């Protein structure tokens, strides 16, 4: 039997990159996958990839930065067994040049959206006595970088939510964990980092960047019963970047 | 099966977590060699005391080439620092740190020659928490986690991954003997409110041993039911 047979999962930010790979992987393992994103055309592509993998996917256009969208999303999706808070943005900037607008947007998407979506969906998991929440964080939460202060802080906040929710919902049988990827070959990362992206490769122990599918495997592990005694943890998947 | 055709060595596999890991890797298709101080039936078991360097060297020679190495053998004679005797102190560090160090050192050249492999160190959440009677044990596990980081960096360029699994309180025969009814008291306030089962730790080890964790190295995977998140 597939690992997530008969389960319902919601993955935010799955029109590209890591989120898309997660949506496809969970669907491949038998989950009915609802996923969100802002771009309709790319959402259709993700549905096609899910169906090609023999799974079932439903796309909901939603901007996690909008609290109205978050509430609508929770109401539309209803009860889920697996929630993957993956939607995130990373507009980098040096601190003195940071615009308030971008600052606000990073925290709205990466933290507030995750927070209120989880708050809306956790009660059904608690009532059921079972569920797995995976926050897609970043190793940026535990390292300093010259232009990532806001993004890094938002991911550290997310990891703190992981610990708090693990304690808050653990007795009800709901597990909550973070996966903290290192440098991953997504379109957004390659475009955003430019030449730096290749240089980063040398900073990992494995001397390569990761692929979205490798992060999706770790998320699947945390989403499934194979990780039944794991909660409140941050699992680093960075090719040894932080260890170096 | 995800470990089909692979050779794995699991130290300290005559009971508890080690035995569950050996079973799990076998189920996943690996040819598993086990060690322990006690004799077991079967040709795939080597009697060896990881606290004894001669045993460690003989073990490495006998085993030869492996794709997966699980450094699980460990001892935990707890005691307050003020009452710690030198012999017990030495024994903890010999089994928990020196043994895995020289066993890994002896097996690595063949992994490097092969261009890949996965090493999993069984550490403990006590590496990162303070308790009144586990100072030596906790320090030995912190040292083991540190080896995980160093080896990940030292051998990552050869395609060898090195990670730790840090279990919380796990219901093994030894833990039941030592703690008995106290187990329930200890785990009641933890988020999941229960001790772990050896099989649950084994699943995490299998994940790290398998290609499913191909971008994980130098990571410490905590499997403690949320105990240290509180």
UniProtKB/TrEMBL annotation, chain A:
SUPFAM superfamilies: NAD(P)-binding Rossmann-fold domains
Domain Ketoreductase: start-end pairs: 7-187
Family (UniProt): Belongs to the short-chain dehydrogenases/reductases (SDR) family.
Protein name from the UniProt record: Short-chain dehydrogenase
UniProtKB/TrEMBL annotation, chain B:
SMART domains: PKS_KR
Keywords per UniProt: Oxidoreductase
Domain annotation Ketoreductase: ranges: 6-168
Alphabetical list of CDD domains matching this protein: SDR_c (cd05233)
Keyword Oxidoreductase: yes
Similarity-based family: Belongs to the short-chain dehydrogenases/reductases (SDR) family.
Protein name in UniProt: Short-chain dehydrogenase
Taxonomic source organism: Lentzea flava
